[in-house]
Design a protein that fits this description.
single chain; about 200 residues; 434 Repressor (Amino-terminal Domain); Rossmann fold; 2 domains; five-stranded parallel beta sheet; two-stranded antiparallel sheet; 10 helices; about 50% helix; about 15% strand
Length: about 200
Amino acid sequence: MSKLFAETIKKLRTEKGLSQQKLAEQMFVTKSTVTRWETGTRLPDIATILRLAGVLEVDPNALLTAASKSGEQPHVILVDNKKQPLAGGLRTVRELLPHAEVVGFTDPEEAVRYAAEKRVALAFLEIELRNTTGFDLCRRLLDVNPRTNVVYLTAHRGYALEAWNTGASGFMLKPMTPEGVRRQLKNLRYPFWRSKGG
């Protein structure tokens, strides 16, 4: 997680004369949550960061910038066997996550091999893949790293119920749009980064 964010939160809290318990009460979270923020073991989601900025009376961009300056570059993958939607999705995600390494795959096996070498923070998976499904690929990616956020991409609403039974973080109808991706980033199970302009 972001060491800079942890140090920034602790400094701002101390300057305001707030104990961890007092900040927790104002944020409606537990003291242990604040401790995790200040030790860098947990990064709050964007909505919580914006609330923190209000409680600490600072410019939200200061906290968002600190949160984004992690020492580890997050790895994001997109898997779609159709090249045109894949190219468009890659452009969208790279624009929103400029500091992430964003890689696309048409071959699910290549995506699994990549995930075994890199710690993938976020995977966007088309559900209808050649020789497999996004659901099966999700399970394989979570076997490699249980903290990978998986968001399904599909043109079919009928997959929504099955998607929620696989441990995924989200479900998006195609086409992939910046607004849709921003919504998904705000609801990740394991927040790791802020979106540009988000």
